[in-house]
Design brief:
alpha/beta; Rossmann fold; Serine Threonine Protein Phosphatase 5, Tetratricopeptide repeat; 3 domains; 6% strand; binds flavin-adenine dinucleotide; Rossmann-like_a/b/a_fold; flavoprotein; FAD; FAD binding; Crypto/Photolyase_FAD-like_sf
Length: 457
Amino acid sequence: MIIVWFKNDLRLNDNTALIEAIKTNQPIMCVFQINNPQLLENSKSQDYFFQSVQVFNDNLIQINQPLHFIYGDTEDSFDKLLTQFPETKAIYTNISERGYGLERDHLIRKVAQNHTVDFYGFMDHHLIGAHELLKKDQTPFKVFTPYYNQWKKLAKPAFQKVDLEKFKHLVIQRQEIDLFKEGTAKLKELTENIEQSFNTNLKQVRESYDEFIDNRLEDYPKDRDFPSLNGTSDLSKDLTTGLISIREVYWRLVQHAPESDAKQAFIRQLCWRDFYNMVYAYNPDAKNLEIKSEYRKINWRYSEEDFQKWIDGETGYPLVDAAMKHFKQTGELHNRLRMVVASFLTKDLLIDWRWGEKYFSEQLIDYDSASNIGGWQWASSTGTDAAPYFRIFNPTTQSERFDPKGDFIRQHLPNLANLSNKDIHKPNDSQRQTLGYPQEIVDHKFARQRALEAFKG
Ligand SMILES: Cc1cc2nc3c(=O)[nH]c(=O)nc-3n(C[C@H](O)[C@H](O)[C@H](O)COP(=O)(O)OP(=O)(O)OC[C@H]3O[C@@H](n4cnc5c(N)ncnc54)[C@H](O)[C@@H]3O)c2cc1C
């Protein structure tokens, strides 16, 4: 028997590990491990993920092939599983190339070895894997553009359809044992009290992506920076859970969209995803350590009060506050707003980027460790190919440029809704008082100078 271990690859089609397992013609047991050390309290990213797991399982139940859930500490739960099923010959899984996922794969590989079970890991989550593209001297790229110039020349892996009939034939029926009952009960506990209902329907995701390609791609380069417009694909959360494969995203675009600058601009964004995966793989400490060593001694501020105001959207800067209130409520945040609020936290408030990265990791429904660390180290100027430290966003100017009529602000800060297009970006003192809107937590000019000095050291 072969165990196919599902993780953030919640689909049957174009699932490399599953397709390879089917090729062996061995009986297959589909397993999902709820990994105790990774569980969080009050986390929208976790809510979204487990709701997606539940929907995936519901879909499998419909074809009578439910997942087998195990729950517990990383090695212990697999040890129990392999003890219970000594007929297991191999574990097939799609691996992670960096961070905690990589560590966990190593641990389970060892457990498998102890049981004389083979472990086969497949690179599935990226178009070009972390170790597939290096500079001529075999060292990793540090700058995005030369990486992208080589990346775009490489052949991309094909989309593979799963042989569903063969899968149904090979997959073993549900095993009613305590180990799995415990796992299923844990999934129920994790999902039953989720207030927000997320859309994790593959058919709808495909329709929405096709609609993006047909109608919105053309304007992507100019619309993608405006949070009040529906200018981007909205695919990141479904790529994170693996509801849709990156190969499907790539080939649907390549095959259906005519050649254009907009198409290339979108492909370039997909490349950032691979770039940050590679950067994290070669900088395994990047979650806690600045990639640029010259910025490891910055005298960050650790003001819990200011940090909480940032989280609650009470900074007195309307675009920052609208973004953060919306984010707290939904777990979603437009890319432009991620840059604005991350810059505000790390430059205007001079608060350690690690605090922001951690909050995002718990709150973002599309949370992906490599992209999140990449984004935070970019915004705080500490990462590879990051924004230079002296490029400090002015939150008011960003608001005027990217939300010119204040549409986004009006939607999320209704008490400011009646201000003019000019005032909404920076209400005056009496407007703030009348509307109950806070004073600016920090003066931008002062904060800018403070950040420049902190970075110069
Ligand atoms: C501080 C900060 C934190 C971030 N954290 C994450 C995160 O945890 N998870 C995540 O997926 N993205 C993250 N990003 C990148 C980016 O904000 C999102 O990928 C994007 O907003 C997703 O929206 P979309 O799918 O509509 O993107 P589109 O513009 O439609 O882009 C298509 C796809 O390209 C990829 N992509 C686009 N921009 C980037 C980028 N800058 N870096 C990496 N991949 C990119 C994504 O997979 C995205 O789905 C972060 C950016 C910043 C500045």
